[in-house]
Amino acid sequence: MLDKSVNSVYTYIKGEIMDNRKKQLLLDIHEIYHEIEDVNSNIMKFGTDVKLTREEIHLIKAIEENPGSHVIKLAQVLDISKAAVSNKLKRLKNKGIITKTVDDKNKSKLIIGLTEKGKKAYLVHNSFHKNFYNSISNIFSDYTEEEMKFLLQVAKRTKKALEEFQSTNIE
Length: 171
Fold this sequence. Notes:
Arc Repressor Mutant, subunit A, 62% helix, 2 strands, two-stranded antiparallel sheet, mainly alpha
């Protein structure tokens, strides 16, 4: 049975005639998008007593996976500006997540490290991703190789359509 909310979603599609399966599939993709968006946008504590944004937790990940790094290295790893890294580091320092120590080899640079709280956030974040991907990948174990190829093709085409939509509808 077709979800009743499908018809309201399709008020945006003028003059388009779709069978109920296509409507339901489009609605399901729309709902999956929102579920993933909710997961990604949630500010989480990752086992600490402070809230961490997605950008902050990814900076924590970069710090842990690139020991001995300084601002320039972290900016390169994350492909963001030095100023953006510095601002995020200030917030993480205030939250008790990072340490800054003078580099013995170059006294003008600070080496960024994680406190115990930062290390815990890193570990919980990794566990979060592992559990998330495991729960999603378990779905695929029931599919044949041909079905997986088809799903991959659908995913690639959907991704391409979304990228094209985004590139032409940004204001």
